Amino acid sequence: MSASSLLSSSARATTAAESRFRIDYPLAPARAVRVVALDPAAEAMVRLVAELPWDSARFLVAAGTQPAGEGDADGDESDFSVRKLDGSATSLALELFDVDVAVMVATTDSAAAAAATIGAACSKRAIMTAGIVIGNGQTQATVSVLRPFARVLMVSADESDLIALLTAVRA
Amino acid sequence: MLRQEINELLTQTGPGAPMGELFRQYWLPALLAEELPSNDSEPVRVKLLSERLIAVRDSEGRYGLMDEFCAHRGVSLWFGRNEAGGIRCPYHGWKYDVTGQCLEVPSEGKNSTFCANVKLRSYPLVKIGDILWTYMGDPEKTPPLPEYEWVRVPEDQTFTSKRLQESNWLQALEGGIDSSHVSWLHSGALDSDPLFKGAKANKYNLGDLKPFFEVTDSDGGLFIGARRNAEEGQYYWRITPWVMPSFTMVPPRGDHPVHGHFWIPIDDENCWVFTFDYLPVRPLTAVERQAMIDGHGVHSENIPGTYLPVRNKGNDYLMDRDAQRRGITYSGVTGIALQDSSLQESMGPIVDRSKERLVPTDSGIIKARAKLRKAALALRDEGIVPPGVDPAHHRVRSAAVVLPAEESFIDSLSEEMTVRPGVAQASV
Ligand code: FES
Ligand SMILES: [Fe+2]
Q1: Domains of chain A
Q2: Rg (Cα) of chain B, in Å, rounded?
Q3: What does the pLDDT read at residue B95?
Q4: Inter-chain contact A165–B360, Cβ cutoff 8 Å?
Q5: Residue B61: left (phi > 0), alpha (psi -120 to 50), or beta?
Q6: Residues of chain A found within 8 Å of residue B366, distances taken between Cβ atoms
Q7: 3-class secondary-structure state, position B228
Q8: What is the ipTM of this complex?
Q9: Alpha carbons B361 and B119: distance in angstroms, whole number
Q10: Average pLDDT score, chain B
């Protein structure tokens, strides 16, 4: 056996006693997370979750696409408006600046256009996207709407998965 | 990241701990049937959920699992003589049946009722498939027996092995839920392992290293879907079921046997990994069975006569830096089971989850932890029976299929993700 059988061997290094010496230092600051509610029921839930103490998470509501030309559904992000929870208007470009994770929350399949626009805007900026679909039972239409745009999709009965996800990524 | 108190809640499975009580709601694999091969077999020491027990098979073939220590003065019954319908402590001759009931106290008079009042704590031990199952909870609430397909198919269609893992059970389970590590850690195995190679879909795995994930509740736990690009307009889906508390299945490959695991806490710093392979409709071939015995696929090569892996932390898992450099194995450790186990043990016996940096693609793990916590607290506070106790929840399958891009696995695969007697697994 090689020199690894000395003090740094797995047998010794991975004991509970040695695990206590894992260096203790603060983790780098939490990553920037945006949560976007895609429809009114999702907004109600996002408002509840936003009450909890978060570090860097910001919560938004997709307000929809400005009416463009007939049959124009190209999902151009500059046509798309978002607002903060206090009702003030903001833009996707502003809100996605320097963001690491975007979480889209939807309860109905009416969220399709918004999901497409936000998903495209995130992929352009290399932002990891997650989708949370809320609803007991009939969620398939909503899931298929979000599927192409969310790297990760969670189907949930309530807000607990959103809270668990945000907590886990230290939002 | 997980707060320290939640980490403790999820990792502690001794008597009285909320997660310990949760585990005590289920029938759990206690040992392999081969460990008690015949009537009056040698007794076997088993530690489960931080309780030291002894497993016995008596002269009539009845199985039992009881307190390891003699009620008289605490000698381990492992030294006992298992004969003539019971196990006798070699120190002063007290004798017990498989239920732990004391049958004889030689020092007492012939008509003494003393021994009627001596009973060791015991649990039922039942053989289903190649497994001896136990239930360590309230006898009044004993659930119906398990119905996992791998133990319900004919004997020649199934194989189970077991290995010790020197880490907390949750670290091990999380490896079974987290399919995103497969394209990295196990990448070497797809074209070399006899139980993996040749499946048509392996090319999708290797062709798309950034899968998309979908996680959805099932009655007993979760289905975790990983989606990769297939041919134009199609996705390759791999579906991993998790049934609470700690049963996971790996999505199949081609016509290879379907494998999975049951992760069982020994104490808070060790667990047994029961590893199985089975086929719903055909016998395992002699070649397949031999490959499993030899430790290929998800099985492990164990030290003969033990369930301790040949590659273990005492020998640095026989780390092969040359194989790592040449890309034969990604981590330098040979064999899928020990590739997983070596890394999970390296985290320390109970990893400090307050230091993690999770990302959204860890959502299977995130959701599983949330469900475990919720179920443990609901049981403790309201006595609610957790998911996975009802045997109907056991009848799930993993699946590997190609679907049109617009189809949802949850919709399209509901039959494939359910046990269908006489119908083969859904696999490409
Ligand atoms: S890359 Fe996942 S633990 Fe290191
Ligand atoms: Fe693995």
Answers
A1: 29-168 (3.40.50)
A2: 22
A3: 97
A4: yes
A5: left
A6: 161, 164-165, 168
A7: strand
A8: 0.89
A9: 51
A10: 95
Q: Select from A129, A144, A160 the Cβ nearest to the Cβ of B370.
A: A160
Percent pLDDT > 70 in chain B is: 100
Q: Residue B276: enclosing H or E segment and its boundaries? A: strand B270-278
SS3 B134: strand
Which bound ligand lies closest to the C-alpha atom of B175? Answer: 2
pLDDT confidence bin for B298, thresholds 50/70/90 = very high
Nearest by CB to A165, which of B342, B345, B363?
B363
Place of tokens 């074209």: B191
Burial class for A166, CB neighbours closer than 10 Å (0-12, 13-18, 19+): buried
Strand-pair category, B158-165 with B212-217: unpaired
Q: Which two tokens stand for residue B312?
A: 């273990």
Report the Cα B268 to chain-centroid distance in Å: 15
Cα separation, B85 vs B39, whole angstroms: 10
Positive or negative: CA dihedral B153, B155, B156, B160: positive
Instruction: Please report, rounded to a whole number, the percentage of residues in chain A having pLDDT higher than 70.
Output: 88
CA–CA min distance B407, chain A (Å): 7
CA-based nearest residue in chain B for residue A151: B212
B311 CA → ligand 1 middle, Å = 21
Residue B262 confidence (pLDDT) above 50: yes
Q: How far apart are CA B148 and CA B419, in angstroms?
A: 9
Rounded CA separation A132/A152 (Å) = 8
Measured CA to CA, the distance from residue B245 to residue B251 in angstroms comes to 19
Is the whole-model pTM more than 0.80? yes
Task: Kindly state the average pLDDT of the residues B406-414.
Answer: 86
Cα–Cα distance, B386 to B18 (Å, whole number): 12
Where do we find the tokens 């398990």? Answer: B146
Return the amino acid letter for B189: A
Task: Give exposure, B125-154, as e/b (b: 16+ Cβ within 10 Å).
Answer: beebbbbbbbbbbeeeeeeeebbbbbbbbe
Q: State how beta strands B125-128 and B122-123 pair.
A: unpaired
List the structure tokens of B205: 């795995």
> A68: which 2 tokens?
């463009």
DSSP assigned state of A26:
P
pLDDT the model gives residue A1: 44
Q: Which of B314, B359, B411 sits opposite A11 (nearest CB)?
A: B314
Query: What digits encode the pLDDT tens for the residues A109-162?
Result: 888 889 889 999 999 999 999 999 998 767 777 888 888 889 999 988 889 999
B-chain residues within 8 Å CB-CB of A13? 346
